[in-house]
Amino acid sequence: MRKIVLIALLLTLAMGTAVAKQNGGNGGNKPPANGSSQGHRGDPIAHLTEELGLDADQVAKITAIFEETQALRDEERENSHLVFCEIRENSHDQVFDVLTPDQQILFEEMQQRRYEMRRALEEARAEHGYGNGGGHGMMECDN
C-alpha cells in the first residue's frame, strides 16, 4: 500500500511539473517574451550572472550543472511515465476482468473514443502553436 501511495505522489509531482511547463513555464530555457528582467523566470543563468556577478568560468560550470540536472529531471519524468503506464494498464485489466463480455466490448470502444479525443485535442493544440511541452503533452502507453 505504501508503495502505491509513493508512486501516486511521484506521479502527481511529475504531472504537476509537466502541466506547469505546458501552461507557460519554459523550464528556464528562454528569457521572458517582453524582455523584462523582472523575476528572471526565463533564464536562471542570466539571473545568477546579474545578481551574483558570475565570471565566464562560473557561468560555464553552472550551465553544466543545470544541464545535468535537466537530464536527471527528464530521466525521472520518463520513469514516472513508465510507472503511470503500468498503473493504468493494471487498473484497466482489473476493470476489464469484472465486466461481462458485452460490457468488455463497450469498455474497449469507450477507451478508443477517449484516445481519439485526446489525440484530436493534442493535434489541435499543435496547430494553434501550443505544441505538447516537448513531447510530454499526452501520456501515451503502448496499449
Q: Could you walk me through the main structural features you see in this protein, from its secondary elements to its overall organization?
A:
The protein has 143 residues and is mainly α. The chain has a domain of 75 residues. Helix content is 70%, strand content 0%. The protein is built from 4 helices and no strands. α1 crosses α3. The longest helix has 43 residues. It starts with a helix and ends in a 16-residue tail after the last helix.
Brief description of this entry?
By secondary structure, the protein is mostly helical. It has four helices and no strands.
Average pLDDT, rounded to a whole number, is 78
Total of DSSP H or I helical runs spanning 4+ residues: 4
Alpha-carbon distance between the two ends: 25 Å
Largest sheet: none
| H-E order | HHHH
How many strands in all? 0
Give the overall shape.
Answer: elongated
Oligomeric composition of the shown chains:
single chain
> Uncertain spans, ≥5 residues at pLDDT below 50?
26-39, 133-137
